[in-house]
Design goal:
about 70 residues; mainly alpha
């Protein structure tokens, strides 16, 4: 699932909760959902950074083998 789809589904859930829950429960739920999304986003950034470094290292190794 890509990040856009995740954020879109979270927005739909938050909109539904805004109509159903009292204000205090909604604020708590919103904080929890946004915290989870933040953790997922940071995890994705870390994963992308690790993979890009791995790919760069493999490219350098292949260039070294070709010479």
């Amino acid at each position: 699932m890509n990040l856009f789809a995740l954020l879109l589904s979270a927005a739909v859930v938050m909109g539904t909760m805004a109509c159903v829950m009292p204000n205090t429960e909604f604020m708590l739920a919103m904080r929890i959902v946004l915290s989870v999304l933040l953790v997922i986003y940071v995890g994705l950034l870390a994963y992308i950074e690790i993979q890009s470094r791995r790919i760069a290292r493999e490219i350098q190794e292949l260039k070294g083998q070709a010479q």
